[in-house]
Specification:
541 residues; alpha/beta; 7-stranded mixed β-sheet; 17 helices; 26 strands; 31% helix; 22% strand; globular
Length: 541
């Protein structure tokens, strides 16, 4: 959920540039939520001074919130050709998505957005056209690395431009805002070329069908799989809309030239088992993706059987472990062989390990380092590495911190904080979590809910039967008594025990029943459900 905001100028007349606008994915603590977005209330307050949004690359955690948040800002957006094409293709799949004015900028180009003098520097990552951004000002320069690694053979697109980075370092960089994702890992991330060799070996050894699940945007991995398939006289079948969308975009941009045509899923059933490689969505255990449907034998056109191979050419994002594990267990239980990066070199990270970070600090020699993009343990490890690399000032900043980077004659430091948080996309609505209903949903998922409707007359006596509905509660308590029957007695007893004068007030009646029901459930179960009580008077019935 990356979003950085750079401000330039005095506080009374400061212009702002947004760098990226990404999403995150909801965990079990946000039941029912589709996506998690950054709360941009501070950016909205600066809207008149926001000169644009620059997208460093086309991963969802860097540009996936545009459709939902851009209408609140309505400023120009800048992307490279691959990001712009993928953005346009994605829009066609999302009914009602806004038409966002997009300016296409090339890797290596230098241009201005408002007062910001910017240069896109080619780096390597796990998709085409990732960029670092050099921000030049009269007071000094700032380098925003985006997501990167040192890979001189990325498979598709330009490799990281080490010569240009060295030239920027020689020009002078006051501050570097740098990726921390692999700051705890020693050595270097393997090259995409090494993964291509590992993938070719796995496919060559397979005797029957092969399915490879990947991050859809990894065009180099798609190309590696296609090359390995062709070398083994196999055809590649696309299973999943996300991969199909990327294949179409990459094909239009010439990134898949020289490969045999990809086949749609309808061809899968006609190909012999030893002549097919399926590229499959669902590497993170998504329940509606192709891999989950195949694993649980729910796919309408595709099946795997004993002796087939599934390659997980991806990293499991923290929080998705259980879902991925369930799919892997389902596959293994059916006699399907699974291959992960623990078994063969079939995946590599798109982020730098410690030796790569050290090399970049040697090239750039910034006076200030600001570790970003990582959890607390990664940010701390990165800060220690930057200090060891000789960076004079390391600023450890959390979300919402305002960090002064320039002018060079003043200390780089945290000078304040702005309000930050999350928004949740729940169906078609984007709301703060507190008003989205997710808090109540979380409570219901833990302790269930009880709904009571009573009809009483003017004297406070029950009229007919009352309605009692239980959601998510056990059927019986420890003594074997029905919860429904027990709570029915509680409702009746609560009304009978109330003085008639108090029964004249509907809110008093409702609150008394609510308290009694929750207390009774807690006594029998040890949990307090949400309880909703509706009181109707006879004249309202």
């Amino acid at each position: 959920m990356n979003l950085a905001l750079y401000g330039l100028g005095p506080e009374r007349d400061r212009k702002w540039l947004m760098m990226d606008c990404g999403v995150s994915f909801a965990g079990p603590d946000l039941p029912g939520v589709d996506l998690v977005l950054p709360d941009i209330r501070f950016v909205e307050a600066q809207k008149k001074n926001l000169v644009g949004i620059l997208i460093t690359h086309a991963h969802e955690d860097h540009y996936g919130a545009l459709y939902d948040l851009w209408p609140r800002l309505e400023v120009p957006v800048y992307m490279t050709p691959f990001a712009a094409a993928l953005h346009a293709a994605k829009r066609e799949m999302e009914p009602g998505a806004p038409r966002i004015p997009t300016t296409v900028v090339e890797q290596g180009s230098r241009f201005s957005i408002g007062p910001f003098d910017l240069e896109l520097v080619a780096v390597s990552h796990s998709l085409p056209e990732p960029n670092a951004v050099m921000i030049r000002t009269a007071m000094g320069n700032v380098l925003h690395t985006g997501d990167w690694k040192i890979d001189l053979a990325p498979g598709v697109g330009r490799a990281i431009d080490m010569d240009r980075l060295a030239a920027l370092g020689a020009e002078g960089v006051r501050a570097m805002i740098c990726d921390s994702t692999n700051a705890t890992r020693e050595g270097r991330s393997p090259s995409e070329a090494d993964v291509a060799k590992g993938m070719a070996e796995v496919i060559a050894k397979a005797k029957r069908r092969v399915a490879v699940t990947i991050f859809a945007s990894n065009v180099a991995r798609i190309r590696s799989v296609a090359q390995a398939a062709a070398a083994n006289d196999r055809e590649v079948v696309i299973l999943g809309r996300a991969i199909r969308r990327v294949v179409d975009v990459a094909g239009e941009l010439g990134m898949l030239d020289g490969l045999p045509p990809f086949r749609d899923e309808e061809a899968y059933g006609y190909l012999p088992p030893d002549k097919v490689v399926a590229l499959v969505t669902g590497s993170q255990g998504e329940p509606r993706a192709a891999l989950a449907k195949i694993a649980f034998d729910e796919h309408r056109n595709v099946a795997l059987s004993s002796g087939d191979t599934v390659v997980f050419s991806s990293r499991t994002i923290p929080g998705n472990d259980k879902a991925v594990g369930a799919i892997q267990n389902a596959l293994v239980a059916r006699g399907i062989h699974i291959v992960t990066d623990r078994d063969a070199l079939v995946h590599t990270s798109g982020h730098p390990r410690r030796d790569e970070l050290t090399e970049l600090y040697r090239l750039i020699q910034p006076k200030v380092a600001v570790p970003v993009h990582g959890e607390a343990v990664h940010l701390a490890a990165h800060a220690a590495l930057a200090k060891a690399a000789g960076v004079p000032t390391v600023v450890s900043a959390k979300n919402g911190a305002i960090v002064r980077l320039l002018p060079a004659d003043r200390d780089a430091e945290i000078t304040g904080h702005v309000p930050v948080g999350i928004l949740v996309k729940d169906g078609s609505l984007v709301r703060e979590p507190e008003v989205s209903g997710v808090v109540e949903r979380r409570r219901i998922s833990f302790a269930g809910a009880v709904a009571v409707t009573v009809v009483i007359d003017d004297t406070g006596d029950l009229v007919g039967d009352f309605a009692l509905s239980l959601f998510g509660l056990p059927t019986t308590d420890a003594r074997g008594e029905s919860f429904h029957d027990a709570l029915g007695k509680v409702v009746e007893g609560t009304l009978e025990s109330m003085p008639r004068a108090r029964r004249r007030d509907d809110e008093t009646v409702a609150e008394a029943i609510r308290r009694s029901v929750r207390s009774a459930v807690n006594e029998r179960w040890g949990k307090k459900p949400i309880c909703d009580v509706t009181v109707l008077r006879l004249e309202d019935a």
